[in-house]
Amino acid sequence: MHHHGYLWTGPKQRFDDEALRRPAHPVPPPAGARPELVQRYREVKAGFPVVELPPLETAHWLVKPAGQVRGTWAEPHAAARWLGARVAEYAPRFAAGPDRDRARLTALVGSAAARLGWGGDVSWGFYLEQPAFLYLSVVSCAPNRARPDLGCPLRRG
Q: Is 3 strand, coil or helix?
């Protein structure tokens, strides 16, 4: 097993647009469906795998292009250290003072290492100066515990 790291920053309003943060339904609209429904289905089916937005389900990062991977680690503690370094980098921009608390952030990194150690995924979100948002994630891969059917993005691309 190994772990892939992902990072996204952008306008909170863009993050809240959930349509492209979930894959298209596995069954397309039926024949004779409204044209706008068919068009929207096609947009989501084509867009979800490549859009840079974080997916609603953390494991779905694995269907995104390999170029979106920010780092890969064999050891869960190394992946958790990457999360900690990113949080430290962005902490001065956190909108909420409690989010900057070092003890809290240290505890988060420790819990991330434990979760990754048993094959879980980690996703964190922080409000930055308005209206920005920071999303960090580390996804366990080969196999992913929640979605073992999803292959490694680095092996595909």
A: strand
Task: Give pLDDT, residue 20.
Answer: 85
Q: Give the pLDDT confidence of 121-132 residue by residue, as tens digits.
A: 999 999 998 889
77, 59 Cβ separation under 8 angstroms: no
Strand order, beta sheet including 2-11: 71-73, 2-11, 132-141, 122-127
Q: CB atoms < 10 A from the CB of 11, how many?
A: 12
Check: CB of residue 79 under 8 Å from CB of residue 141. no
Strand spans (E) along the chain: 2-11, 71-73, 122-127, 132-141
- Cα–Cα distance for residue pair 152/55, rounded to 1 Å: 16
List Cβ neighbours of 56 (8 Å cut-off, separation of 6 or more): 18, 21, 22
Tokens 């990113």 locate to 86
Rounded to whole angstroms, how far apart are CA atoms 56 and 116? 19
The pTM is what? 0.90
- Kindly tell me if the per-residue pLDDT of 157 is higher than 60: no
